[in-house]
Amino acid sequence: MSKLVVKDLHKSYVINEGFGVRSRVHALRDLNMEVNEGELLTIIGPSGCGKSTFLMVVAGIHPFDSGTLLLDGKPITEPGLDRGVVFQDFALFAWRSVRDNVKFGLSMKGLPEEEQDRITDHYLNLVNLTEFADVFPHRLSGGMKQRVGIARAMATEPEILLMDEPFGSLDAQSRKILQVQLLDIWRETKKTIVFITHSVREAVFLSQRVVVLSSRPGRVVETITIDLSYEDRISLSSSLMDYERHLEKLIEEQLEDDFGMSMNVSMPAPKHPGFAKDEMLD
Amino acid sequence: MAQGDVRLNSEAVEIIDEGKGKWMYYLSTLWENTWPLLALFVLWDLLARSGVIHKALFPTITTVIVTIGHLFTEGILIPDILASLSRLILGGTIACLLGTVFGLIMGTNRVIEKIMIPPLNFFLSIPGIALYPIVILFLGLSETTLIATLGFEAGLTVLVNTWTGVKSVPPNMLYAGRVLGAKGWDFFRRVLFPAALPSIITGYRLGFSRAWRILVAGELLVSLGTGLGYRIFLAQDFLQIDVMYAGVLLIGVFGFLLERVVLRSLEVYTVQRWGMIREL
């Protein structure tokens, strides 16, 4: 069954180029995708292809121009607790302890205090952070911060977990450990996860299916099913490499297109760096 | 730092100083904050005693302290201090509250922001002291005149700092609040305000110091018969040079206390504890 349905999604935003010059950037156009219940799906594509924009649209932070966007058959119009988001830069609340970060969504949900504590403890335990519960986030390492981010997003028990390059800013070791931990958590909870990355290796290691996006405006180039067992993944079997090679080639093709296109762009080059209009608090 | 209640990892983190208890900590903090000032006062005294400057124009600090004692026993000092401080605290607090609220609104609503920027810059460039004659026309020679003018000046400062603070919060922090269900008042109180707090506190500090300056000047112009500023200018009329110095010294001391005791503590217990500003 499809958890998330994306049909003919079009998303653009306006950039202020200065001196009254404004341009419209088409980030996503005719994007079609379905995410199945209980699936871990990764989206991969050249940088600037609108991957993150897509995730923020699904999160309800940014509005979209046209198309259909359904979660469990209901249209997405605004942020909601049925979608959890994990950010690349963690976006933890510095003024709240680890425990209170995880608890934040629960208290917004208005659950009784004991219930909030019980769920918080559970998720702190899930990410192995029980002993750091009372620490302020700035004292944690990057990997630990992101584990808080994951616990915080999962605590409200969303229908779908949206992860925006969550391990992108981590060192190689932390990254590896967190990938395994995420895979374990996913196996345990069977959560529907949309995971954005630009690491082919990460995509193949983690997901059931990989969606390759074209360069901007983002469209789906190909969807690949990764038919590997948990053991295959953990042992880094050779079939992993075959998928990687295939994906790598697809992305390279996209990049070649990108370079070809940038030779005859019709849009005037900005005179000075433009400012993207922030769409955060309209 | 006062975070030792959390043992990150008993093997990796060892307490190298158990401290000598709370009171010793307060005492050493007090000493840390006062000795440079005391050193300055000693220099003042030495300079005054050296006779380089005429004694009548530049009295020793001991003379000034004796004068403060006289003013105190004559029953002038306490009403002056209370008058000035109550004006400062009343006007300053109202200014902080209003400045914060409007700063948060201005930082989150593009239309309001666009409308507010030109008048804000217009009023920011007008020194509060220039406004006194006009405010007096409407509010007379009253406490309200002083409080309104200093509140206006401090409020604008807080507003600007809150506004820029909100604008420099990383967008993802705000998104995180929204996807976790914070809306309306909850969003303002539990996400936006704490996220912008480092800059907001800077606004409070600047706001209060500006308010203090504008108040002292205002006490001369409005002449209500009390206040440290009024005392200084009255002393000028009677050539009581030591009283002039006493007034200046007290203004400095109270400004220092407000900053170090109230506002700095606020900073240490919030944004510094949260790692939002660097500790030197």
What report would you give on this structure?
- The complex is a heterodimer of chains A (282) and B (280).
- Chain A is α/β, with parallel strands linked by helices and 282 residues long.
- Chain A has one domain: 3-Layer(aba) Sandwich (Rossmann fold), CATH 3.40.50.300.
- Chain A is built from eight helices and eleven strands.
- Chain A has helices spanning 51-59, 98-109, 113-126, 142-155, 172-189, 200-206, 230-234, 238-261, and strands at 2-18, 21-36, 40-44, 66-71, 74-75, 83-86, 160-164, 192-196, 209-213, 220-225, 275-276.
- Chain A has a six-stranded mixed sheet with strand order 6-7-8-3-9-10, with helices on both faces. In chain A, strands 1, 2, 4, 5 and 11 form a five-stranded antiparallel sheet that branches.
- By secondary structure, chain B is an all-alpha fold.
- Chain B has a domain at 78-272: MetI-like (MetI-like fold), CATH 1.10.3720.10.
- Chain B is 77% helix and 0% strand.
- Chain B has ten helices and no strands.
- In chain B, helix 3 (77-108) runs parallel beside helix 6 (143-167) and helix 3 crosses helix 9 (228-237).
- Chain B is flat.
- In chain B, 34% of the residues are buried.
- The model of chain B is unreliable at 1-5 (pLDDT under 50).
- Classes of the chains: A alpha/beta (282), B mainly alpha (280).
- Chains A and B meet through strand 6 and helix 2 of A and helix 7 and helix 8 of B.
Order of helices and strands of chain B: HHHHHHHHHH
Shape verdict of chain A:
globular
Low-confidence runs of chain A = 262-282
- Find the count of extended strands of chain A (DSSP E, 2+ residues): 11
Number of helices of chain A: 8
Q: What share of residues of chain A is helical? A: 25-40%
- Tell me, rounded to a whole number, the average pLDDT of chain B: 90
Can you tell me the CATH superfamily of the domain at 78-272 in chain B?
MetI-like
Low-confidence stretches of chain B: 1-5
Radius of gyration of chain A: 19 Å
